[in-house]
Recover the amino acids of this structure.
């Protein structure tokens, strides 16, 4: 039996428990944490209120602040782009993957075509080993033949997958790029605050280019930096700014700069979005399709934590895809608050948020087995 797109979405809404009703209790939830999912969280605020009668406020203070606030039970829910595994974490807190999106490499090279970088080149740029835009490594990355992957999709836009859970490739295209790079110095702009985005970004650098980025992942960029970030040669050339909005703003007003942030910060700050060359030799755009292909290669444990396979050779995988976790309590003092947080988590995963609002902002839909495991985690909220 075949179902229409609208029927599938309606069925998913029922599975998520999103039947519009007038609640006996209208909650006003307070949340804080990661800036990475902030645009999606803001975009889904009004439709969530219309569907449930509940409202919420969210302060995008960074993943570090979200974890700290969760430790002290400041507010009702918290977001982090990296698992909270510290000793300060309250035993009653659980992780729920609710948002997926790419970390984008954003640059401000005037009058340039779409640039593309390998992991080794990205690591050398952000570590200060490459300092000029016309460095041979950047020139090689942007004057070579790569592949572009087109995946088979379902009628609702999600990726078709085989029995093993891998996306089904519809076809591949060979692409040859030719780019002239300017003889200009590169200015690196990094996140100065504690950030799950930084933790995921430095994890990618360390796992994908370990001979260059020799230090393990850290939530604070300078703590993972392979060398002395305060060395005289780095002063004024590698600079920090707080939160995603801050690094994008700084890069936007600094010609020939480069940074990392959510793809949706590019347009407002007139930044260009780079492709990433993955281990299969494909030049991949940081979009929902590439992230979904990458997440399909990840493993997830019983607690909800995801382990990413940065070395995957999945043809269309965008290797800088990440998830944001909702930190929620299994022992809320107020059970009505617990129920409202549960409704919020389900709504963020639903088509009305993840697809209708999220895809236009560059976010990916969590579906399949990942969705089932997220819903199982939500069921523990209490």
């Amino acid at each position: 039996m075949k179902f229409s797109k609208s029927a599938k979405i309606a069925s998913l809404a029922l599975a998520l428990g999103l039947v519009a009703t007038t609640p006996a209790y209208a909650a006003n939830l307070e949340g804080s944490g990661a800036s990475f999912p902030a645009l999606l969280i803001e975009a889904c605020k009004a439709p969530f209120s219309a569907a449930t009668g509940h409202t919420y406020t969210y302060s995008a203070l960074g993943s570090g602040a979200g974890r700290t606030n969760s430790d002290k039970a400041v507010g009702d829910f918290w977001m982090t782009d990296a698992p909270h595994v510290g000793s300060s974490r309250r035993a009653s807190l659980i992780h729920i993957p609710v948002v997926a999106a790419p970390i984008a490499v954003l640059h401000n090279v005037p009058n340039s075509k779409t640039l593309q970088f390998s992991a080794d080149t990205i690591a050398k740029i952000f570590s200060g080993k490459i300092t000029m835009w016309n460095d041979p490594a950047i020139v090689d990355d942007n004057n070579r033949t790569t592949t572009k992957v087109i995946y088979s999709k379902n009628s609702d836009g999600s990726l078709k997958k085989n029995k093993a859970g891998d996306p089904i490739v519809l076809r591949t295209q060979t692409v040859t790029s030719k780019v002239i790079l300017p003889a200009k110095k590169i200015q690196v702009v990094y996140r100065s605050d504690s950030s799950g985005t930084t933790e995921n970004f430095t994890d990618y650098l360390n796992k994908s280019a370990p001979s260059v980025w020799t230090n393990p992942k850290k939530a604070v960029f300078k703590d993972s930096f392979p060398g002395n970030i305060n060395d005289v040669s780095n002063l004024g050339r590698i600079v920090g700014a707080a939160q995603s909005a801050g690094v994008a703003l700084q890069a936007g007003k600094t010609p020939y700069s480069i940074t990392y942030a959510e793809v949706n910060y590019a347009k407002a700050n007139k930044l260009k979005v780079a492709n990433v060359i993955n281990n299969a030799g494909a030049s991949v755009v940081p979009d929902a399709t590439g992230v979904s292909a990458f997440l399909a290669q990840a493993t997830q444990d019983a607690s909800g934590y995801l382990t990413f396979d940065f070395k995957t050779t999945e043809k269309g995988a965008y290797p800088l895809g990440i998830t944001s976790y909702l930190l929620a309590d299994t022992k809320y003092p107020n059970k009505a608050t617990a129920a409202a947080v549960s409704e919020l988590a389900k709504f963020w995963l639903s088509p009305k948020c993840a697809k209708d609002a999220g895809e236009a902002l560059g976010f990916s839909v969590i579906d399949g087995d990942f969705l089932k495991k997220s819903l199982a985690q939500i069921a523990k909220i209490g």
